[in-house]
Amino acid sequence: MGFVYFVSVLLLSVISAVNSCPPSDRAALLAFKSALNEPYLGIFNSWTGNDCCNKWYGVSCDSATRRVADLNLRGESEDPIFEKAHRSGYMTGTISPAICKLDRLTNIIIADWKGISGQIPACITHLPYLRILDLIGNKISGPIPVHIGKLKHLTVLNFADNLISGNIPPSIVNIPGLMHLDLRNNRISGEIPYNFGKLRMLSRALLSRNMISGTIPSSISNIYRLSDLDLSVNQISGPIPDSIGKMPVLSTLNLDGNRISGEIPASLMGSSGLSILNLSRNSIEGYIPDVFGPRSYFTALDLSYNRLRGPIPKSILSASYIGHLDVSHNHLCGRIPAGSPFNHLEASQFAYNDCLCGIPLRAC
Ligand SMILES: *[C@@H]1O[C@H](CO)[C@@H](O)[C@H](O)[C@H]1NC(C)=O
Question: pTM value?
């Protein structure tokens, strides 16, 4: 009996040793935790005991290797811990470079804690298995690590809503499987890499509300899968490349609030699959291309605050749908076309032009 008991205890301890996380991963997690302060929810209270793979909040391990594979800490979540506290998360402190010792990580999500500051540890680019890197909604400053392109397995890179500065590292174009790039609302300056079009898997490129300058690289139109391109509220100049209107799945194009000049490429209006086009607040000139047709289906078409001349083209009546239209604050002139897509218009959508007339403005 005593012997059986001894063997069982031995077996159990062997099994739990096999199942628990390696002491080095545990130590790295504890070092990571010690650089942070989470005063309201107590999510780190669960980070005790030897087995970091067992019920440590936000930590999960690979079932075969027992190495830490995911770190998923979201400050806005449906988790009961948030409901109990009746509040969303808040955390201060920094992301410790100790995180780089967790070299089997595939996902790092440290999102919406509002107060985490400091820089992104440069060593994060040494995590060879990383697929998702999501640090949205903190106060992280400093640059994007210059060697970010070493993260060959990255599919999601989200640094939106932080205080990140510096340029977009040219190495970023070497991430072959990048699908979702979100750098919105930071302090990023410099130009979009000229060979950005190497990112063949990209479906969303969201760079709005930064200080990005230079021109729109025409290589962007080589990104076959790109459906959402948002460069709004930056300092981008130069023309809209013609080829953008020929992109097969592009459905949202936001270029508003820049210094874009030149004319509107006809391909953007006629045959493109765009449903949202915002070119507002630029220096776009010339005529609105007279190429609308049955394939034109816009839920929003905002051309306001530019230098457009000439009439509103008659072909706009052949568009299948124009939802929200705004051509105000230009130099347009002539009779506003009357017809079905144009039945629910308000004067403000046409106001502040040189000599537009007809419903909903004054008679011609
Ligand atoms: C287009 O962009 C402008 C300026 O950034 C913004 O004010 C406007 O609401 C946008 N239009 C639409 C239809 O979203």
Answer: 0.93
Q: Break the chain into its structural domains and give their ranges.
A: 32-357
CA 258 from centroid of its chain's CA atoms: 18
Q: CB of 24 within 8 A of CB of 1?
A: no
CATH topology of domain 32-357: 3.80.10
CB 166 within 8 A of CB 146: no
pLDDT score for 9: 42
Phi first, then psi: give them for residue 70, nearest 5 degrees: -130, 135
For residues 52 and 59, the answer to whether their CB atoms sit within 8 Å is yes
The first and second tokens of residue 146, run together, are 């210059």
281 touches ligand 1 (CB under 6 Å) = yes
Cα 150 to middle of ligand 1, angstroms: 36
Instruction: State in Å: Cα 311 to ligand 1 middle.
Output: 22
Regions in the chain scoring below 70 on pLDDT: 1-19, 341, 343
So what's the pLDDT on residue 269? 87
Looking at residue 47, its amino acid is W
Alpha carbon distance 297, 233 (integer Å): 25
Q: Are 137 and 77 in contact (CB under 8 A)?
A: no
